[in-house]
Amino acid sequence: MGLELRQQLKLSQQLVMTPQLQQAIKLLQLSRLELVETVQQELLENPFLEETENEAVSEVEDDRSATEDANDALVKDADWENYLGEFSSTSKQSHSRDAEIPEEGMSFEARLASKPSLEGHLSWQMRLSNFTDEEIAVGDVVVGNLDHNGYLKASVDEIMSMIPVEAELVEKVIRKMQLLDPVGIAARTPQECLLVQMKVAGFDSDPVLVSLVTDHLEDLEKHRYKPLVRKFKISMEDLKSYLDLLQTLDPMPGTNFSSTEPHYVSPDVFVYKFGDEFVIMLNDDGLPSLQMNSFYVDNLKASNEKEKDYFSEKMRSAAWLMKSLYQRQRTLYKVVESIVRFQRDFFEEGVTKLKPLILKEVAEDISMHESTVSRITTNKYVSTPHGIFELKFFFNSALDLGDGSQVGSESVKALIKQLISEENPKKPLSDEKIGEILKEKLDVNIARRTVAKYRSAMGIASSSKRKEFF
Q1: Total domains in the fold of the chain
Q2: In the chain, what's the furthest Cα-to-Cα distance?
Q3: Which of 90, 140, 203, 453 sits a CA distance of 20 to 30 A from 386?
Q4: Which domain holds residue 327?
Q5: Is residue 372 within 8 Å of residue 28, measured between CB atoms?
Q6: Exposed (0-12), middle (13-18) or buried (19+): which is 448, by Cβ within 10 Å?
């Protein structure tokens, strides 16, 4: 068989993701705060980009600064010490001291106190208590093996493998740490945590209370009260007093020092009702308005090919960024406008009127690809007359009604939550009963297991756990 080289022409098509297209897709799925940060970074890196200035705002600021300068001059020239006379509460020395160290000279971060961590709080207490150096070393290992609830997740043997000490010393350090603030920290089980807190509070002398914590926490959780009343030969009122006392204890002492930071939401879009129509306003607060820097465009001249390529690249990048930002805002507006059309009943009356909706319907309505709609609705929030919601919230599955129409699953969830909030705590509604009520109100055939699925998704306990006996 002979081998030879041949040339062959072949035509083919393939999708190439240019850097500009990648940038446009990236901007689509950024949240508003991430978008502001990205634009600010581009302003720092690209000399051909600049932020447009509002002349009217500048004039107002100039007038304001002139007024402030005049007021400052008046304050400095006035003889306030003679004016106040004997009613002056501060001395001249304090005035000179304030002038030497103005508060404006301090950074904003210097005025804020950092949130204490659980590790730092325990380490600080150990070093101020009667812990020896060896006990502090063991305590540091124990602190490093605590979970976010404050429970010790390492066994004594595992701690001994990390630091060469005796088992007795490890147990001693754990017991001493459990008496630190918060009390019950470094416990291995919820029973141990509650027993330590009971000992510190002086509740450990009651054998019934100790037995409830040691052997019957599961029975208390599942509201199995009658067997406990018979076992301990006490009344329901006595059992209720024990439960009230246990509720004063903290089974998760480490949660107050959780490192989880709150998640703040800034709406990307505002929807207001004006008359019979809904007005859509994009939130441009903090988002710079960009333009090409005319000074660099007109005056910069490249001395060599390398500089010419750099200038051309930065100019193209600036132009593409402005175009991508405009396209993003335009797409966001069109998607929200389509959602308002489809979900007008929601904006009029609330969550119970939310209709079933899928991405494909909005994509066809605004003549865009479904993936574009998916990206622009990711991490975006809209402020409505009924609260702030993620754009993904408006897309939900459908449930068939008896008359052939459909209702959104989120509407059913909202009605389930409303029914449970209005129920009698001593006779909570079962999932089967909720299904019957939904059939009466919405004429929807919904199975008991579907009600249970929706209830669990909303974090609502079953009827047996919601029942109150007292």
Answers
A1: 3
A2: 116
A3: 453
A4: 269-394
A5: yes
A6: middle
